[in-house]
Amino acid sequence: MTTIDAKSLLAIRSQILERNAVLARASAPAAAQPADFGATMQQALGAVNEQQSRSSALSAAYERGDTTDIAAVMMQRQKASISFEATLQVRNRLLSAYKDIMNMPV
């Protein structure tokens, strides 16, 4: 049986703390920049456009007679429709907020 003295115990403890610090620095994500509203909106509109494009492509493939499942076509059309409706709702809310701000007394 070995005995552990206070010096070796403190040395082990300091090594563990150093390793934890290194691991924390390695796994910490880089400081994220705050999201720009314009860039976020542009990204969202790009995603909606992508959904619409996929829907059009699948519909055209089905109309040509390509081997496309009708369920996949309908699912993609619904996804595109829902994303477009959500975009319209965001636009309506933004316009409403703008009108409210403009009607505020100074």
TrEMBL record:
One of its GO terms (molecular function) is cytoskeletal motor activity. It is found in: Bacterial flagellum basal body. Pfam families: FliE. InterPro entries: FliE. Keywords: Bacterial flagellum, Cell projection, Cilium, Flagellum. The keyword Protein transport does not apply. The keyword Hydrolase does not apply. Its main location: other. One of its GO terms (biological process) is bacterial-type flagellum-dependent cell motility. It comes from the Bacteria. GO terms for cellular component: bacterial-type flagellum basal body. Transmembrane segments: none annotated. Belongs to the FliE family. PANTHER family: FLAGELLAR HOOK-BASAL BODY COMPLEX PROTEIN FLIE, PTHR34653. HAMAP family: FliE. This is Flagellar hook-basal body complex protein FliE. The lineage of its organism: Bacteria, Pseudomonadati, Pseudomonadota, Alphaproteobacteria, Sphingomonadales.
